[in-house]
Amino acid sequence: MLKRLNGEDDMTGAEVAIRDADFPVPFVSGLEYNAPARGPWNIVHTGMLIPESHQVFACAQGCLRGVVLTAAEMLAMDRMSWISVDKSDLFDGSLERNIVDGTAEIIRKLPKKPRAVLLFISCVHLFAGCDFEFMLDELRAMFPDIDFIDCYMNPTMRKSGLTPDQLMRRQLYAPFAPCPADPKTVNLIGNDRPTDASSELVQLIGNAGRELRDITQCRTYDEYMRMAKSQLEITYLPTAKASGDALEKRLGRKHLYLPLSYDFDEIERNLGILADALGVPAPDWTGAKRKAVRALEQAKAVIGGTPVEIDYTATPRPVGLAALLAEHGFRVTRVYTDAMIEEERPAFERLRALAPELLLTATVHAKMRFAGKGVHECGDVLAVGQKAAYFSGTKHFVNIVSGGGMYGFDGVVRLAERMADAATHEQDTETVIQYKGLGCRSCL
Amino acid sequence: MKQTARIISIHAADTSGVCSMLYELGGMVVVHDASGCNSTYSTHDEPRWYRQDSMIYISALTETDAILGNDEKLIADIAAAAKDLSPNFIAVCGAPVPLLAGTDFPAIAAEIEARTGIPAFGLHTSGMHSYLAGASEALEAVVSHFCTEALPRTDAPSANIIGATPLDFSVNGAVESVIGWLKKSGFELVSCMAMGSTLDDIRRASAAHVNLVVSSCGIAAAELLRKRFGTPWIAGVPVGEKFSARLASALKTAAASGGCALTCAERDASAPGRKLAIPGEAVFSGSLAAAIEADLGTPCRVLCPLEAEDRLLAPGDLRIFDEDAASAAFAEASGVIADPMYAPVCPPDVPFFRLPHEAFSGRCYRKESLNLIDHPLPWRF
C-alpha cells in the first residue's frame, strides 16, 4: 500500500556509520514515530513508587487518556483520579478553581485518605500562567494531614530544562524536609527498580555498616519518609541526578553521582569515591574485574559472531556498553539512539576507533516506521533492549530498561549472563515488549 | 463534579479519532504535539500499530517553537517526510498547546499542499474532545477531497459502511461481520470507511445505493455524500436477530426511496420503571438497546457520555457527562451493560454485564472483546 520514492532500503537520515556521526546528536530532528516498545517507565509508574499516595492529573482529555490507562493497566486505578481541562477553562479564569475543587472532591470521595497526593498539571497550565502555588496552598489548608506534591506532565518543555522524567524523579522526594541526619543510613535515589544486592555498590554500603534505603523497597509511607534522614544521597542514572542535587541543596546532605558505567576505570573510580564518602578503605577490585572479564568471555563463547544491537532504553549508556562489548570481541553492529548524553563522549570516541562501521540508528525518525520487524534482514540478532528487539525483529533479546538494576563489575557479569541466556532462549517479542512499565503489574 | 473522575477511565481523544479513521488510507497524519499524543494513541488506541504500517507521526513540538510560532519547522518537516514517503494525502491536526497558540491548521495544510503537490487538509482537534469529533472531521475531509465524482450506481444494490474504527469495533471480526451481514441482506460492499478499504475504494463511494452509518462519527461524511450524490443513509449496527432484520429492511427502503433514517434511535426509553442502562457511543448503544428490547423484551436506556446529536438519542435516553452522573444513572437501572472500567461506580446490587469498548478502556480488556454482529445476544436478563 505504501510507496517510498527512495526505495525500500534507503535509511539516509535515519542511520549513520559511527565514523561519520556527529556527537551528541547524529540526526536532524523532524517528525517522530513511536515504536511499540512499552517497557520504559513513565511518570505514572514512577509516581506510584510513593507508598500510600494518590495521583490526580489535571490536563486535557488526550493527555489524560495515556496516564489513566497506564494506571489501569498496572491495576492501580484506585490510586489515580483526574480532572479534565476544557477550552473554556483556559479563558474564563476557572483553571485554578476547577483543580482545587476537583482535587478536594476526589480526596473526600476516596475510601481511605492518602498520605500524599501527587497533583499533576500539564503544558497548557504553564502556558496559561496558572498559579500552582495558590492551588497547593489552598489544598494544604484544606487537608493539613496530606502531603501535596507538585508534579508536571509538560513534554512541550522537555528541551527547556528538566524533562518530565527528570522532574518526576526529583519530585518523588519533594516531601522530605530538613531534619537531623542518621549517619548509619544511605539513600539510593531516583531508581525505578532495586539495584542487585550482589553489586559492589550495595555490598560496599552494607560492609561499611550502613543501611541502604531505596524508594523501590519502601512498603509504607512512614518507611519512605524515613529516607529523609539518610546522611548520604547516591544517584547513578542520569535522569536521577537532578533529584540528588535537589536533596543536597534542600536537606544539606552530600550527593554522590556515580554514573552507571561499563568502563572498568570509571567503575573503579566511582566505587573509590563511594568508599571515601563512607569512610572505609576501597577494596581491591582485581577479582571483581577478572570475574567480569570471564563472564564476558563466557557470553562471547555462546553468542559467537551473532550481531549484537543495543538501544538507549536498555541503558543510559548504550554507546559505552557497545564499546565494552566490542573491546571483548563481540560483533556489535548497531546502536539505536536518537541522541547521546555528554557522558558518552569518551566511549563514543573509543567505539568510533574500534568499530567505525557500526551504525547509529534513530528510533523516532519517520523512516523508522518501516524499519521494524526485521526489514534490515540482519538474520539472527541478539538485542539488548526492547527497541533493538523490535527493529531487528529478533526473538533473542535482553529485556531490561534503565540499566536493569545492574551496576558495577557485578553488573557487567549479570548483563553478560543475561546476554548468553537471551542467545539461547527465544521470547515472544511482540507480546513481551508491549507490556507497559517493565516490572509493574499488568492486566494484559 | 463536572470534568472530574475518581476512578473511571476517559474516552480516547479527538487526535486519536483522526489517526484511527485515517490509519489504513495511505495518508500521512501529523499531530502537532510534543510527545504524548502519539504514544497514547499507538499504545492504547490503535490495535493495528504493531502489525500494520501507517504514517502516523507527531511534530515533536517544543516550547520555543510554540511561543515563537515557528510553523515553518512543522511545514518543512512534513514536506521532507512526504518527499521520502510519498503519502496519498497529508492530514495535520493539533493538541492543546497549538490551540492556545492559535495555530491555523487549514492554512498550514494549504502551504504543505502547495509545496508538496500532495492533497493536504488541516483539522481542528485540540485534545479536548472525544475521538468521535476527530474521526468525524477526518472522514468528512477525506470524503470531501476524494469523493468528488458522481459515478453511476452499481447494477446490484450496494452500500458503503461509514464510521468504522477499532475504537468502536475493535479488531475482532466485527467489521467483517457487518460486511458479511450486508451481503446476506442483498447489498454489495463498495467501501468500508475506514477499515479494510483503500482510498481508491472510498473514491468510488458515490456508486453505492445507500450508506450504513455504524458510528456517530460517520454521520457528517454520510450527510456530505447525501448532499453531493443524493445517497441516503441509515444509522444502526446489525446486532440481535430482530433489530438486524429491521435494519436490513430500512436499508432496502432507503435505497428505494432515498430517505434517511436513524434506525438506532427508533425506540422509546421514556416509560417509567427500571431499565437496563447501556452507556457508550450513541449509534452502537442505541442499536444494542433496540436489539435487546426486540429479542429479549428487556427495556433499555442509552446513557451517552460522548458528543452526539440529539436526534441520535431516543426519548428517555440520558446524557452523562461525568462519573457522578453515570453512578446515579446506574443506581436507577435494572442492570448495566458497559465497559468494565465503569464497574467501580456501579452499585453492588445492580447486575453489571461486561462489554469492553476500546475507546474507553483501550487494550485493557481486548482479550474479552465481544463481536456482537450477526451473533445471538450473549445475555439473558
CATH superfamily of the largest domain in chain B: Nitrogenase molybdenum iron protein domain
Helix segment tally of chain A: 17
Extract low-pLDDT stretches of chain B: none
Which consecutive residue ranges of chain A, at least 5 long each, have pLDDT under 50?
1-7
- Identify the CATH class of the largest domain in chain A: Alpha Beta
Per DSSP, the total helix count of chain B is 15
Nearest-angstrom radius of gyration of chain A?
A: 23 Å
Q: State Rg of chain B.
A: 21 Å
- The percent range for strand residues of chain B is 5-15%
Largest interface: A-B, 68 and 72 residues
Secondary-structure element string of chain B: EHEHEHHEHHEHEHHEHEHEHEHEEHEEH
Please count the beta strands of chain B (DSSP E, at least 2 residues each). Answer: 14
Q: What is the general shape of chain A?
A: globular
> Judging by the overall fold, what is the CATH architecture of the largest domain in chain A?
3-Layer(aba) Sandwich
The CATH architecture of the largest domain in chain B comes to 3-Layer(aba) Sandwich
CATH fold-level name of the largest domain in chain B: Rossmann fold
Task: Supply the helix-strand structural class of chain A.
Answer: alpha/beta
What would your notes on this structure say?
The complex is a heterodimer of chains A (444) and B (381). With 444 residues, chain A is of the alpha/beta class. Chain A folds into 3 domains: 15-36 and 295-432, Rossmann fold, CATH 3.40.50; 51-171, Nitrogenase molybdenum iron protein domain (Rossmann fold), CATH 3.40.50.1980; 182-278, Nitrogenase molybdenum iron protein domain (Rossmann fold, 3-Layer(aba) Sandwich), CATH 3.40.50.1980. Chain A has 17 helices and 14 strands. In chain A, the strands form 3 sheets. A 6-stranded mixed β-sheet of chain A has the order 1-12-11-10-13-14, sandwiched between helices. In chain A, strands 3-2-4-5 form a 4-stranded parallel β-sheet, with helices on both faces. Chain A has a 4-stranded parallel β-sheet with strand order 7-6-8-9, sandwiched between helices. In chain A, helix 7 (164-171) packs parallel to helix 10. The radius of gyration of chain A is 23 Å and the shape is globular. Residues 1-7 of chain A have low confidence and may be disordered. In chain B, 39% of the residues lie in helices and 14% in strands. Chain B has helices at residues 14-22, 36-45, 63-68, 71-85, 96-101, 105-116, 131-146, 166-169, 174-184, 199-203, 219-229, 241-257, 282-296, 323-331, 358-361, and strands spanning 4-5, 28-32, 55-58, 90-94, 120-122, 158-162, 188-193, 210-213, 233-235, 276-279, 300-304, 318-319, 335-338, 352-354. In chain B, helix 7 runs parallel beside helix 11. Chain B is globular. Classes of the chains: A alpha/beta (444), B alpha/beta (381). At the A-B interface, helix 2, strand 3, helix 4 and helix 5 of A face strand 1, helix 1, helix 2, strand 3 and helix 3 of B. Strand 3 (80-84) of chain A pairs antiparallel with strand 1 (4-5) of chain B.
